[in-house]
């Protein structure tokens, strides 16, 4: 009865037809939006076409149809809408997102965060894998300014390099090399300008 009242209150605030629905067994379904804020490239099958509706209905896993892999940057802050159940865990949401984008990386490399805005500040909190995102959405209401979900790299403090493939590690080296060169150029330009000013002053 308490959940039913919460759902009715939630649906009264919905403005985009994405309502929550209570089932006879006490579970409920609804929608969440997840912002993808991934800074590193992900691994996807090479030369595979995007998944069609037919593939999704037949549960065809295109990623398993080729052993070839390539790295790819997902668009920063892309948004994916998911229809989930009250029994869907954070772990299942992460796996579902990776499947939709045909990402073959280990799900442990990623984490789901809840983003909250309070007093003009943005607060990020990593969610445990056993948490239920739809219940958090129900409690917070439909306003994404109050609560939103973000998929990011799983920053645990220590990088588990064994979880990455050889092509990924090679890509990281290339990226680090590029960033190093850019930093060197920035420092050189900074001191070159400083040198010019000193010479003009002299």
How would you explain this protein's 3D organization?
The chain has two domains: 1-153, Ubiquitin-like (UB roll) (Roll), CATH 3.10.20.90; 161-201. It has five helices and eight strands; from the N terminus they run H-E-E-E-H-E-E-H-E-E-H-E-H. The strands form two sheets. Strands 1, 2, 5, 6, 7 and 8 form a six-stranded mixed beta sheet that branches. The protein has a two-stranded antiparallel ribbon with strand order 3-4. It has helices spanning 2-13, 53-57, 90-100, 133-140, 166-201, and strands at residues 21-22, 28-36, 42-45, 69-72, 78-85, 110-118, 121-126, 147-153. The protein has 202 residues and is α+β, with helices and mostly antiparallel strands. Keywords: Cytoplasm, Cytoskeleton, Metal-binding, Microtubule, Phosphoprotein, Zinc, Zinc-finger.
CATH architecture call of the largest domain: Roll
CATH C-level of the largest domain: Alpha Beta
At the fourth level of CATH, the homologous superfamily of the largest domain is Phosphatidylinositol 3-kinase Catalytic Subunit, Chain A, domain 1
Integer average pLDDT: 83
Query: What is the chain-wise order of helices and strands?
Result: HEEEHEEHEEHEH
Ranges with pLDDT <50 over ≥5 residues?
Answer: 52-60
What is the CA-CA span between the terminal residues?
Answer: 82 Å
Number of discrete domains: 2
Domain Ras-associating: 70-156
Protein name: Ras association domain-containing protein 5
Organism: Merops nubicus
Main location: cytoplasm
